[in-house]
C-alpha cells in the first residue's frame, strides 16, 4: 500500500504513522449508528469523516448497526439511516453489517472471559450496582457475588441465556478493579436480560450485550483498523482496549474527535424525540429539525452538508459552530445549482396604463446566470402584474430606488416602467400602483442606455399560480439551548415564529418543479419544493435568505 500520504488532520497523522510503523497495512473504518432514531447533522459529521478517510487511504467503510437494545430499535430507523447515508453520496458496498450478526460469537467470547476469571454473574440490582460503583474520589465496593467460581458463573450465564431469570435479576459483569480511577473500569456490565423480541433475531436471545462490550468486538470481527468515535467515548477507550487485550483478538485503534455542536440547535436524540412526541415539530423530517431528512426537506443539498463538515474540520476539542456557516455553505452551493423563478409573497397590483389591454407576450428569462447550461424559460407578461408591496412607497426614505411616483425602475427580464400614481383601500393601504412602460426597453434594457438603479421582480396577474411559502427560522431563540438538561427550560426557548406560512403568487413554470428541487426565488431567497405538494397545492420551503452574513466573517478571518 502507498504510504506517501499527506495528513490534513490529527486522525490522518495517526493513521499515516500506523501504516509507516506496520501496525496496519490497510485502512478500514466504520459508521456504527444505533437504530433508535433518525440521523442528524452531528451524525453527518461522523459519516463524512469515516467515509472520506477510508476513501483517502484506499480503504473501505462499513455501515454497521449497533442493534443491541431491542426495546428502542425498529426497522423504520434502519431503512431511514441507510437512505440518509446513500443520499449523502457514500457507498458502503453490497453488505450492511449488524451487531446482531455477532451475538453468537460475542456469547462465546464472554464465556472465554468467565473461564479466565475475568467476568462473573452478579445478582445486585441496577440501583445497587450504581451505588456501589463509587465516585471520582471514592473507590467502589466489590459485589458480594464477585468471587463466584468459574463453574458457577458459566452455569448461571447459560441460565441467563436460556431465559431462566427475570429482567433485572442478574447481569454479567467484567471483573477488573473496583478502585480504578476510571469509573468505566469498575466491573462494568457486559450483558443484561431484556425479554423483548429483536427485529432481526426475534426470540432467540433474551440477553443483550452492552455498548462497551459489543463495540470493540464488532470492530475486531470486521477487522476495522481505526475506530473513530466522538470525545464522549475517550474515557471508554481504556475498557475497549482491556476487553480486546484480555481476549487476544484483532485490536483496532480507537481515536476520538470532537462532536458537532451547532448554535440554536439541539442534537440530543432524547431532546429531538421529545420535540417530535410532544408536537413541537411535525415529525422527524420537519424542516426545522437538524435531522438529515429535515435538512433535505428544507432544501439543503448533500454537497452543502458535506462541504460544511469539511469546512469545520476535524479537531480534538469541543466547540460550538455558528449555524450561519451551514447556511453559507448552502448558499454557495445553491447559487451554482438552483434554478431561478419569480414569486411575489406580499402582492399588490401593478397596472401598466399604456400596455394593450388584451396583449400577452412571453419574455425570455435566464434559469441560472451562473451556468448557461440551465438555459432559458419563457414567462408571460401582460398589462396587470403582481409586485411586492414593499417595492412601492408613498413617502420613501432617502436612497429608496424602487417604485415611487415619478421614479423609473426596471422590471426584471421585461421593461422599464415609470410610476404615475397609486390607489388605496378604505384603510389607506396601497392596493394598486399605476405606471407607464417604455416599449423600446424589452428585455430590461433601453435603447438610450439610461441608467436605472432599481430592479424589481413581478408575476403576471392574468397567468399565475397560487403557492404556499413556508418561511422557516431558527427553532430556538437561545444560542445554546442545550445548556440545561431540564425539558421545561429547553422547550421554553423555542422560537414561536420558527414557521410562518405565506400565500404567494408565482410564475407558471413552477408547475414543472420536482419534489425537493431547489430554486432561487428572485430577491426572496432559496426555496425547495415540499414533497407534500399536490398539483393544486404547491408548497415551497424556504432554505436560506440571499443575504450571507457569514461570508463577511470568513473574509476577515
From TrEMBL:
Coiled-coil regions listed in the entry: none
Record field: catalytic activity: tRNA(Gln) + L-glutamine + ATP = L-glutaminyl-tRNA(Gln) + AMP + diphosphate
EC class: ligase
GO-annotated molecular function: ATP binding; glutamine-tRNA ligase activity
Statement: the UniProt record of this protein carries the keyword Cell membrane: no
UniProt keyword annotations, A-Z: Aminoacyl-tRNA synthetase, ATP-binding, Cytoplasm, Ligase, Nucleotide-binding, Protein biosynthesis
Pfam families: tRNA-synt_1c, tRNA-synt_1c_C, tRNA-synt_1c_C2
Domain Glutamyl/glutaminyl-tRNA synthetase class Ib catalytic: from-to ranges: 27-335
Record-annotated tRNA synthetases class I (E and Q) anti-codon binding domain positions: 455-530
Domain of life: Bacteria
Gene Ontology terms: cellular component: cytosol
Domain Glutamyl/glutaminyl-tRNA synthetase class Ib anti-codon binding: 338-438
GO terms, biological process: glutaminyl-tRNA aminoacylation
Keyword check for Plastid: no
EC number: 6.1.1.18
UniProt family annotation: Belongs to the class-I aminoacyl-tRNA synthetase family.
Protein name (record): Glutamine--tRNA ligase
Protein species of origin: Desulfurella multipotens
